[in-house]
Amino acid sequence: MSSIRLSSALRLVSRRTVSSSAKRLVLPTAAALPRVQIPVQQCRSSSHSPFSATAGPPRKKVTINTLRNLYNAKTPIAMVTAHDFPSGLAADLAGVDMVLVGDSLAMVALGMEDTNQLTLDAMLHHCQAVSRGVKGAFIVGDLPMGSYEISPEHAIKSSIRLIQEGRVHAVKLEGGAEMAPTISRLTSLGIPVLGHVGLTPQRASSLGGFRVQGKTLSSAQKLLADALAIQEAGCLGMVMEAVPAEIAEIVTSKLNIPTIGIGAGVGCSGQVLVQVDMLGYYPEGRFMPKFVKLYGDMFKVAKEGIEGYMKEVKERSYPEKQHTYPMGKDETLEAFRAWVKDQDVKKEEK
Ligand SMILES: Nc1nc(=O)c2c([nH]1)NC[C@@H]1CN(c3ccc(C(=O)N[C@@H](CCC(=O)O)C(=O)O)cc3)CN21
Ligand SMILES: CC(C)C(=O)C(=O)O
């Protein structure tokens, strides 16, 4: 059976965390799967993360200046969503510039039908998990529907919680010109804001569903006006979702802040995708927006891994000796055997 060396990303983490006594763990796999060997630190308790939360990857921190430099150099900005510690860690170790704790987590991690059921408290919980795993990338937390619309003060209060408790670096909010006063207040207080125009999922009902925006002249005009208004209000950039590529490119060319496109073509200043979508975490047959490209098959990997484990549990080939704890002294075992025999302990009949 062939052996695959551990990925360089995992090696990066394990180099910091694996002690000299680290065991070499051979992952149980189905016969069809190649054998993957990953050295791991022996975990004392299931409540302990196998990866040190403090040992960050040796990455230079992405700041608002880094993003500005990328934009000025016309280097596309790569952003991906994350909703927990491992997905944050994967994104960060892959080297993305920005990590978004998007409210799509409502749909992809919590099984909700839309993003509007998500509360600020739930978002905070996930931001905390992601920010524990992300040490280099610039982290943006989404303001969920209902956490910022009532007044600028409402938005300020929620944003401070996302930054103070969620440990994100910037907040994202949906909307155009009507949100400009709120965005101005936030940015004047030193809270960086990423805007979101085009298809704004929190307003899907009033858009008639998850519909492509900017397809008519008036809709394209409104898109440009909204983009200019939130730029003027001080946004560091904006997500531009589900807009015809040509329109997105023209709007991008009229701005002096980056557009991060999703379903908006290659003419944007950067791209964002939902990590769960792009890595193929779902079984075949689930609807995917047209802009999703699969870069992985996580559902297959997960399912086959669990099948391999199940098979070995059923045939008692897992756990093997190396997965068990040895006795300290042989005499103790002998003494215990003799004592149990002496007690004549009977199995209770049920
Ligand atoms: N898993 C997931 N991925 C996402 O990208 C995502 C979410 N969830 N939830 C929040 C929003 C909703 N998103 C969506 C959802 C559906 C379409 C969609 O059905 N688009 C149609 C276009 C329809 C038209 O022509 O107007 C498509 O065919 O892609 C687009 C964006 C993007 N966001
Ligand atoms: C789809 C992206 C841009 C988003 O807003 C989210 O993940 O919630």
Q: In terms of structural class, how would the helical and strand content be classed?
A: alpha/beta
Bound molecules: 5,10-methenyl-6,7,8-trihydrofolic acid, 3-methyl-2-oxobutanoic acid
Classified by CATH, the class of the largest domain is Alpha Beta
Strand percentage:
5-15%
Compute the number of structural domains: 2
Share of residues in helices: 25-40%
Number of strands: 11
Element string (H = helix, E = strand): EHEEHEHEHHEHEHEHHEHEEHHH
Q: Specify Rg, calculated over alpha carbons.
A: 25 Å
Q: So what's the overall shape?
A: elongated
**Oligomeric nature of the chains:** single chain
Biggest sheet architecture: 8 strands, parallel, barrel
Unreliable stretches? 1-48
CATH topology of the largest domain: TIM Barrel
**First-last Cα distance:** 46 Å
Count of separate DSSP helical elements: 13
On the 0 to 100 scale, the average pLDDT is 88
Function: Catalyzes the reversible reaction in which hydroxymethyl group from 5,10-methylenetetrahydrofolate is transferred onto alpha-ketoisovalerate to form ketopantoate.
Protein name: 3-methyl-2-oxobutanoate hydroxymethyltransferase
Catalytic activity: (6R)-5,10-methylene-5,6,7,8-tetrahydrofolate + 3-methyl-2-oxobutanoate + H2O = 2-dehydropantoate + (6S)-5,6,7,8-tetrahydrofolate
EC number: 2.1.2.11
Descriptive notes:
It is built from 13 helices and eleven strands. By secondary structure, it is of the alpha/beta class. It folds into two domains: 3-54 and 300-343, no CATH class; 64-278, Alpha-Beta Barrel (TIM Barrel), CATH 3.20.20. The strands form two sheets. It has an eight-stranded parallel β-barrel with strand order 4-5-6-7-8-9-10-11, surrounded by six helices. A three-stranded mixed beta sheet has the order 1-3-2. Strand 4 (77-81), helix 3 (85-94) and strand 5 (98-101) form a beta-alpha-beta unit. Helix 3 packs across helix 5 (120-133). The structure holds 5,10-methenyl-6,7,8-trihydrofolic acid (MHF) and 3-methyl-2-oxobutanoic acid (KIV). One of its GO terms (biological process) is pantothenate biosynthetic process. Belongs to the PanB family. Catalyzes the reversible reaction in which hydroxymethyl group from 5,10-methylenetetrahydrofolate is transferred onto alpha-ketoisovalerate to form ketopantoate.
